[in-house]
Amino acid sequence: KLILLDSLLQEMESNVDTPDGSIKLSNVTSKPKVDNWAREQTAKDSKDNGRSDLECYVLEQYFVPKSSEHIVRPAAGVAEDTKDGKKDKQGQKTKRPIMKIKFSDRLCNNLVDVAPGAELPQCNFPNCKMQHDLAAFLANKPEDLGPECFVFVTQGYCPRGLACRFSSMHVDQDGRNVRQSRDTVMVGKLVTNQLEKDVQVKLRKKKYDFKVADKVCEEAWDIINETGKAKEEGSNENGNGKTSENSLSAAPEVTTNDEEPPEKKVKLAEIEDPAKNIPSNPIKPLGPVSDEDLIKLRKVEKKKALDWTDKTYLAPLTTVGNLPFRRVCKVLGADITCGEMALGLPLLQGHGPEWALLKKHHTEDFFGVQVCGCSPPQMARVAQLLEDRVECDFVDINMGCPIDLIYKKGMGSGLMARKRPMENIVRSMSSLLSKPLTIKMRTGLYSDKSIAHDIFPLVEEWGASALTIHGRSREQRYTRLADWDYIGKCVETVNIPVFGNGDILNYEDYNLQKEKSKVAGIMLARGALIKPWIFKEIKEQRHWDISGQERLDIVKDFCNYGLEHWGSDDKGVENTRKFLLEWLSFTYRYVPHGILQYPPQRIHERLPIFKGRNELETLLSSPNSADWVKISEMFLGKVREDFQFMPKHKANSYS
Fold it and tell me: For the whole model, what pTM was predicted?
């Protein structure tokens, strides 16, 4: 019967329209193939008006049809393939131009910051390649980039002195650096977590004492091994012979550090303070008093409780999540900020650039640092180092980084599949830190197999205080939409705060996904880069149709904060410009709310080519990297003739 019915339907669909004008059956019941239909519609749309149904639509008067000038072409003289005809696998970072400043063009550091009335000091380095003729340096120094030095105006003292590119405001005729602020030491205290020289020397010479971390790591291995033996004995008693890898949540209870015998706690206390005398037979006090003087509380038991509820959280963003950008977001309403991902091994080696990622500005009142590593002993030492030397409110472990360089070493998202090292790292770090330990991860490694819901209850048991999950797998990177249904499923598996992350670009998305998944809060990453005022929109529950001038003021604030952080000399100006241009490669993707045809803008929508309501808005929305350089020149002066900028996200711009 089914065969006859199918053949009958095929025969009716193949019939042509009847002469009486009746509608043939195929027009009503037949359904074209989805793939072919999508291709035809996309091609038809592109042919008719050059627009796609996946595009973010703007009003017709602002729409600009694509032309040949918008096609991305390789830069002149840059070969796309290697000699073997194969694409270079090392990425474009190795090919990106680096701005270098010759030592012979710089003034000796001894002469840069000399107080008025003081004599010029002598350089103690006979092979110093910098300039020592102060008069010649001042005569040949390029014209200042502007009349006002932001650092001097806000702090009353510019530590860059004569090397400052805005020095006319604070350098006298004799080449001395003027000081309006008497407390020049306070200028350096606005930013904390700077690596001290003596600590750096100890780390480089491997003389830093890590006995406490090594002891805790060994104890964590003992607990893990005891747990494994208990599982084997339980399985043998049941006659199974094997334990199911999927039943992670059904693992038997194990002895944690909370149940350690008093002898071990005494030994740990002796390691921390050998000179401290612990009485062998302490006198038991009378009355309803606490036993803190009898039993030493571990650092994990003294953790300060943080309020995570309904907080907006700026994600730790590599390269673009620097201190000046975090300051911009803090002014615009961000509650929680976190430093860029720092690798554990360079931190233990005293590597200056890696320690710079841990710096904190005094306005960041809810601040965390994020570390990444694969080795339990190494991460335990990092935890001790952070506990001793870094001022922060929480420490975050990166278990979500998808890039191959990190993943192939077992770090980042690669740690999600390594249960034993993951357990040791979480147990050790949570025991060593007096601050809450948090973890950021993805749904899993592969798009068809999510494992975060199994990991969540385990890391909660091991000592994590809060969790963050990005609703995509490592394999997906940033393709497809974030799975907020799965995020809600993960929230139900634990009793600690959980933050969700993915595809939030306006307060409507924020409210919808927060209510849908029941998370404690939402972490913002690309949405904050595209429009950092999203924090203000969420707090005020409105769409802000921000003007071009207001957007430019935010860019100006970033430049000022960058000059304060990286310095106002030649090197600092170029560093500020570099990070500004990287940020502008995201901000141009914002489509002004007032010209949207179907507001609000969604993060997955394809950007159209459009013109703004004025020239400034058009400039800020330009995908041409040459226009980003023009924006930087408004605040940081003209670029050098040999200046080149290649954005990391090359596919999203043209030049």
Answer: 0.82
